[in-house]
Amino acid sequence: MVLLFILVFCALIALGFGGAAAWSDYTRMNIPNLYSIAIILSFIPAFLAMKFLAPETVYFDSLQNHVITFFAIFAFTYVLFVLKFIGGGDSKLITAYALWTGFQGLMPFLFFMALIGGILGLITLFLGKTKLVKKPKRGSWIAKAQSGKREVPYGIAIFSGAIIAFWQINYLEPETLISLVTQTTGS
Predict the structure, then answer these.
(1) Would you place residue 56 in the very low, low, confident or very high pLDDT band (cuts 50, 70, 90)?
(2) How far apart are CA 121 and CA 100, in angstroms?
(3) Which of 183, 187, 127, 180 minimizes the C-alpha distance to 5?
(4) What whole-number distance in Å separates Cα of residue 126 and Cα of residue 80?
(5) Residue 62: how many CA atoms within 13 Å on its side-chain side?
(6) pLDDT level of residue 109 (50, 70, 90 thresholds)
(7) In this predicted model, what pLDDT tens digit does every residue of 126-152 receive, in sequence order?
(8) Any idea where the domains of the chain sit in the sequence?
(9) Is the model's pLDDT at 187 over the cut of 80?
(10) Distance spanning both ends of the chain, measured CA to CA
(11) How far apart are CA 83 and CA 113, in angstroms?
(12) I need a labelling partner for 160 at 20 to 30 A (CA). Which of 6, 30, 91, 116 fits?
C-alpha cells in the first residue's frame, strides 16, 4: 500500500506542476524552472520505490532507459530552442516529462503533445484574425495572439501530452494500480 501511495503521490505532483506550468504559460507565456525541477525530483522517489521495493512490477523501465530518454530529448529540444522554434521553458518541461515516460511512453507523449500544440497553433491564428475576446488580460496568450503575435502556450500541449502518456503507460490506470495493491499486500 505504501508503494501505491508513493507512486500516485509522485505522479500527481508531476502532473500538478505540469498543470501549474500550463496555467503559467497560458496567463504569462512563461514557464518557471521550478516546475520542471519539481517534475524531475518527483520521479526519483517513484522510481526508487517501484524498482527497489517492488521489482516484480513493470511500472518503469531501467534507469538507463529513462536517463537516455531524458538526455536525448534535452538535446533535441535544446536545438529547437536555439533555432527559436520553442521556448526554454518548453524545452525543460518536455525534458522533465521525458524522464518520467522513458522510451515506453515517449511516442504517445510526443504525438499527443504535437497534436494539441497544432490545435493551439490554429487557435492562435484564428484569434489573430478575429479578435474574439474584447478585453483579454494583458500579457496573456490571448492578448498576444490578438495583437498578431504567433506565440503558442505550448505548456498546455506538453501537460496534455503528459497526462495521456501517464495513462497510456499505466501510471494512473485504475486496474494496474489495483494489481499493484494486490501484489504488494499478498492478497
Answers:
(1) low
(2) 26
(3) 180
(4) 25
(5) 3
(6) very high
(7) 998 988 888 888 888 999 999 888 899
(8) 2-181
(9) no
(10) 11
(11) 19
(12) 6
State the Cα–Cα distance between residues 171 and 182, nearest whole angstrom. 16
C-alpha cell belonging to residue 53: 521495493
pTM here is: 0.89
Q: Output the pLDDT for position 8.
A: 84
Q: pLDDT value at position 40?
A: 98
Burial of 20 (0-12, 13-18, 19+ CB in 10 A): middle
Output the nine-digit C-alpha cell for 15: 502532473
In contact, 97 and 109? CB cutoff 8 Å = yes
H helix intervals, the chain: 2-28, 33-48, 63-82, 88-130, 141-146, 154-168, 174-185
| Backbone φ and ψ of 52, nearest 5° | -100, -25
- Indicate if the alpha-carbon torsion angle 121, 125, 17, 76 is positive or negative: positive
Cβ-contact 172, 7 below 8 angstroms? no
